[in-house]
Amino acid sequence: MKPFFQESFFKMSKYLNVWDESIRFDKFYSLTNWRLLIVSIAFSCFFFLICIRLTDVMIFGPRKSYNINSLNSPFEQSIPRADIVDRNGNILATHLITASVYADTDDIQNPKQAAELLHSVLEECLVSELEKKLSSGKRFIWLARHLTPKKQDAIRHLGIPGIYFKKDYKRVYPYSRLASHIIGFCDIDGYGIAGVEKSFEKFLRQSNEALRLSIDIRAQHILMKMLSEAIKEFSAIGGNAIFLKVKTGEIIAMESLPNIDLNHPSEFNEKNFFNINTLGVIEPGSVLKVLNVAIGLETGKITMNSVFDATKPIKIGKFVVSDFKGKDKILTLRESFIYSSNIASIKMLQAFGGAIQKKFFEDFGLFDPISLEISEIGHPIFPKRWTEATAMSCSYGYGIAVSPLRILATVNGIINDGIFIEPTIIYNKKCNYRKIILKRTSRIIRDLMRDAIIDGTGRRANIKGYRVFGKTGTTYKNKKGGYLNDANRARITSCIIGFPFEDPEYILLFMLDEPKSTEKTFGYATAGWNVAPYSGKTIEMLAPILGISFSNEA
Predict the structure, then answer these.
(1) Could you read off the pLDDT of 251-263 as tens digits, one per residue?
(2) Superfamily the domain 84-212 falls into
(3) Is 279 left (phi over 0), alpha (psi -120 to 50) or beta?
């Protein structure tokens, strides 16, 4: 390289006629080399600064967002969640594009003044809180999320340096309160924290397809309407209902009141979001007599020709068990069931014994939490020691506490030709099933439940044209080792009703918590007077929208 520069230097000097022997090439070469070194260092520093800036932008993100109105903005809060729809495709949960406001505090000149200006628009935010955020020294800090277009425009017109908008997504629920316990809701960042929003978090974040539930929003509306009317009429403190498809286990509707408006999570409280159907556990009451009779028939210890002496009460420890409006006579199996005799139920239990009863309860699944695609599931409560007193109590509906969904699913298995199907809230899902009783036993139970609707405690649930069958239950509330017996405040009433009788397609559980008596009920607050008639009305409204044919038979 040096010979090349030397030759060029001589030629240039000769051409310019400035050759001077006193000018030495070595001196010139050293000066040029030094200048090249300085230029190289300068370019290296400039390149290094560019690399630092690119790294900052690509890894840590830009300091300011792109225009919120630009749909192509690469600076987004999160990937939108998939929709949730009912079995007919009606949208239950979706998202809207919104804007959220944040601050780059490096650009805030006067935090106190800026806070006061922002408070004029963001009235829900305290000035002190805004000032604290604007003085934090952070390059990115949220001020408010999911603003309305009106508030966005108002903040823009304030013209505060360092205040910027960011594209955001808000989860919305078109049907508000309907199916709120099933759907659940998301936090402000769009992460599911309850219901299917939580249990299907991964699917909803990654799928391009909607999550399709088994519920029918029309049936859901009917359940909430009828529950609301029943709670109001009987001054109950709450109520719940489940409507199940018999042969698939699909939950068509499930409502628990009180509930919450999913679009206003600030209203959330534990009482309103407590799903009685799945999380609550109660003593079933007389609806458990369906299981008691089924066990007796399965073991062969009782038959349709069996009779039971119900003339005298039975003592269990410190309690005396009698019949509500007892007949004080010897009862046939049919009479025992339609009159819902506690005494006869204990006599049936004594025929096959507590050990066999416990084994059947295990096979029915009563000692296990119900399986469902949400996390809000209650665990059953039962004695560790299965004593004779426990077995006697369980024969007529006390001594064990399970979720309403577990009760309904078990009774559904008994009337479904003895095939138990795990319930589901997912559309067209193939659920686990197992045989729990014989088909002939199932048919006898359905006959008895039909008789209970025609001539027994559930006759006010009888709806002409749909040949319904069912069983009512009234349970006194347990408190501190005893049972409340105030006539107007002590009860949980329930009614399980299925249809059509010949080939069941749907089954309903309807419950009220602490219903009160009225003039129309002549002072009674038992299931036959409150939940039974409302169960029938509910079926009458549901059947047409589900395509169940009306029959001219009674």
Answers:
(1) 999 999 999 999 9
(2) Penicillin-binding protein 2a (Domain 2) (3.90.1310.10)
(3) alpha
